[in-house]
Amino acid sequence: MSTPRGYAVAVLAGDGIGPEVVAEARKAAEAAAARFGFGLSWVDYDLGADRWLRTGEALPDGVLEELRSVDAILLGAVGRPDVPPGVLERGLLLRLRFELDLYVNFRPVKLYPGVASPLADVKPDDIDLLVVRENTEGVYVGAGGTVHRGGPAEAATETSIETRAGVDRVLRFAASKARERAGRLTLVHKTNVLVHAGDLWRRAATEVAAQAGVALDYAHADAACLYLVTDPGRFDVIVTDNLFGDILTDLGAAIAGGLGTAASANLNPDSSPSLFEPVHGSAPDIAGTGRANPVAAVLSASLLLDHLGEREAAAAVEAGAVAALPGAAGYSTQALGDRIATAVAGGGSPD
Ligand code: IPM
Ligand code: MN
Known about the structure:
single chain, 351 residues, alpha/beta, ten-stranded mixed β-sheet, globular
């Protein structure tokens, strides 16, 4: 008899709509596990605004150590208006990205059938690209400081740090994705102004693309914003630095119909665990109303299953979510999650 496959998944549901959407993502993943014959054991962690307000801890060291040993992490959203900005973002989310060395932020930008894009005359096939965002360097490293704070001579620095090794590894990942797809990679940077980091990225990208046998294209970050709106089909795989990737992927989510369907994976392709989360935030304004779209979290769970090697299950979860999208706005978070789980379990349409 073969041993049943089983995975431990840590759940950081977080704040606002996080717990609501994560519950539906779990349902879909459970349905896939039952259908494809593997087990998921979920371990819940109550990190987020409440924990921080109660204890002052965003990510206790002991919890971080436990998280190192799970197979994957599913995160909902963190942040609430009663917690100062940056506390949970830096203390929890970015700390996890850095400590677990999740150097790839992988964000598909895909317009699904039945979802309206704000762009005129685009069909689903016209918007189907991947953004591979560097996730552990750049301006996110937190290097910098303030002097003479509050006085007339106040000065602040925020230093962007790029390393050749860090750039090379994310480029290699992006090039491998480009090879699996159309063989086209676009570097997005701002080499006309950021001449030091831009030069490093450009030389590294040229070498890595040549080694991988993929065609390399280049766009400045501002022009890439323009092209995403005027001609999204020109992109297939974009690779870019941390901050440009942050900005581009919100724009990407917008052209693909909004944050309701935007999924992401924070990956360390070389070791587990990786972290999966919807691109959207905690949306405190709609928390508890049943109006949150769980699809972005469900699609993030699909990326999680794919990363665990459960390809069929991942495809079934994606298909279930996509099948539920037309008319999704007419359903509550839970009703939509139920429809998706039913589709995933049965392999048929939710009706
Ligand atoms: C994202 C978010 C985060 C980021 C914030 C919450 C720190 O905007 O995942 O895109 O800037 O990376
Ligand atoms: Mn962002």
